[in-house]
Amino acid sequence: MKIQRELGAGQNVIRSYGRVQIIVNQDTFTTSLIVTPEHIVRDWRPRAFAELTAEDFDAVVALGPEVILLGTGAHLRFPDPSLMRTLVAANIGFEVMDTGAACRTYNVLMTEGRRVAAALLPIE
Description:
Layout: E1 14-18, E2 21-24, E3 27-29, E4 33-35, E5 40-41, H1 58-61, E6 67-71, H2 85-89, E7 93-97, H3 99-111, E8 116-120
Parallel strand pairs: 6-7, 6-8
Antiparallel strand pairs: 1-2, 2-3, 4-5, 4-8
């Protein structure tokens, strides 16, 4: 899906997403990544939902978000609650959705000036 509206000048905007790729600004990503308005973490370790560990969220928490959106790929899947303990302890909001919904939600929250991070697994 291509996202048309001009959003967040000077910030990382998810321009489009689809099977096997996500475009942030002018860059194309084909692996898992983390996006915040100011940072992009390329090649986030988990390549698939089944590979997620609690340690994978340390890289996201280090970016200081108030809310984290986890894009779980083509389908909504909920991770084991034990993976979220660090986020709960740090008082960080956490939402799970399919990757397309996470991309759209990220753009909305980013334009509202929220400290949002999208941890995105590829749509396969």
